[in-house]
UniProtKB/TrEMBL annotation:
Gene Ontology cellular component annotations, sorted alphabetically: cytoplasm; ribonuclease H2 complex
Keyword Hydrolase: yes
Organism field: Microbacterium hydrocarbonoxydans
Designated name of the protein: Ribonuclease
One example of a Gene Ontology biological process annotation: mismatch repair
Length: 219
């Protein structure tokens, strides 16, 4: 199957109407354990004229071995980047959609802390639902775009940056709870992960409000 590389067609068009794009994409939404993370990648007009980094794709289309290198190139390519998080406890407390909004808002704040001015920015959000506007403390201009993680290079950058960060975090948690094999499954519903849950029960990092025993096996 031929994988089409993401482009900057949409970003260039949008940058004729705004000064900056803050591209957002989430990872970890469907996991049984660990946080949800949202990556942010900032693109300006000058950046949109630079060549898309070699190998940049939606993080699901980049092999685990290559992701760290691609993420480094992506972070160097955009003018600012960051990751926002919402914990498993927050997901249990407020639900996954609001937790996604919290993580997205924190991702936006992470680039604001680097000097990005949201008043001059358009948020480009992968998907068909704006889950960030209601949560962020100041008004945002948001455009949701289906398959943006596949088609829009700035969102692909946000995706791979977030994926590498979350995978690294889950690998660290593996050392604390090795029986769940998070270094391999990253908190998703693998057979070994569910078997460990049946044997040991839930850790503090599991999303206890979810019907974990009935979750489909993904690996």
């Amino acid at each position: 199957m031929t994988v089409i590389a993401p482009k900057l067609t949409l970003e260039r068009r949008l940058l004729s109407e705004c000064e900056l794009i803050i591209a957002l994409d989430e990872v970890g939404r469907g996991a049984l354990a660990g946080p949800v993370a949202v990556g942010a990648a900032v693109m300006d007009a000058a950046g949109s004229r630079r060549r898309v980094p070699e190998g940049l794709r939606d993080s699901k289309l980049v092999t685990e071995k290559r992701r760290p290198e691609v993420a480094m190139r992506a972070a160097a390519w955009v003018s600012a980047s960051g990751v926002g998080w919402a914990s498993a406890a927050e997901i249990d407390e407020v639900g996954i959609m609001r937790a996604l909004g919290l993580a997205a808002s924190r991702a936006v704040q992470s680039v604001v802390d680097q000097g990005v001015e949201v008043e001059n920015a358009l948020v480009l959000l992968d998907g068909n639902h704006d889950y960030v506007s209601r949560v962020h403390p100041v008004p945002l201009r948001v455009r949701s775009q289906v398959k943006a993680d596949r088609d829009c290079a700035s969102v692909s950058a946000a995706s791979v940056i977030a994926k590498v960060a979350r995978d690294a975090y889950m690998t660290e948690l593996h050392d604390e709870h090795p029986d769940y094999q998070w270094s391999r499954n990253k908190g998703y519903a693998s057979v070994e992960h569910r078997d460990a849950i049946r044997t040991l029960g839930l850790s503090p990092y599991h999303r206890a409000s979810w019907a974990i025993a009935d979750a489909p096996t993904l690996f």
